[in-house]
Design goal:
The chain has 6 helices and no strands. The chain is mainly α. The protein has one domain. The longest helix is centred in the middle third of the chain and has 20 residues. The protein starts with 14 loop residues before the first helix and ends in a 17-residue tail after the last helix. The C terminus is likely disordered.
């Protein structure tokens, strides 16, 4: 193979870039003691004056912006390996929320789980070992998505999964 990078992984689907940052930021915030939420679906209590922040905290919007920058760096400068490593982190967040070992918004976890699962299923159409490498994550995500759907009242996806082949 030449010294050129393989970029076929970038053409799978735009949904991870578009939908993951906000959902992942909400999941990370739920386990980040330095984050000022509110995470969707939760209520905050206390005597803090609205509009003020404790020093060292980050708002949900700041966390989402940081996640968008991370995704952008991965897409522009990353590799297939670094992208799959990022998606494995998200898989860990989603499966932890589904199992109840991590606090988090089930709707955000469901959205992130569905997006990553769709992505991993589409890897079958690309050359290389990506589909095989994500087999365990696909299995874990399928289980987590099933569990999260029972806790989430309505679908939160903003797109219909891409059809990946077959005849009409």
């Amino acid at each position: 193979m030449s010294g050129r990078r393989r970029l076929d992984w970038l053409g799978l689907t735009p949904e991870p870039e578009r939908e993951l940052p906000v959902a992942v930021a909400a999941l990370r915030a739920s386990g980040d003691r330095t984050a000022e939420t509110p995470v969707p679906g939760t209520r905050t209590h206390g005597t803090r004056t609205p509009g003020t922040r404790t020093p060292g905290t980050r708002t949900t919007e700041e966390l989402a912006a940081a996640e968008r920058r991370r995704v952008e760096r991965l897409v522009l400068r990353g590799s297939r390996h670094s992208w799959l490593r990022y998606l494995a982190e998200i898989t860990d967040l989603v499966t932890s929320v589904a199992a109840g070992t991590r606090t988090g918004d089930p709707a955000a976890a469901l959205l992130a789980g569905e997006v990553v699962l769709d992505h991993h299923r589409m890897l079958i159409g690309l050359p290389g070992p990506g589909y095989g490498r994500t087999a365990a994550d696909r299995t874990a995500l399928e289980s987590a998505v099933r569990a999260l759907r029972t806790r989430t009242p309505s679908p939160h996806r903003t797109h219909t999964p891409t059809r990946t082949g077959g005849s009409r």
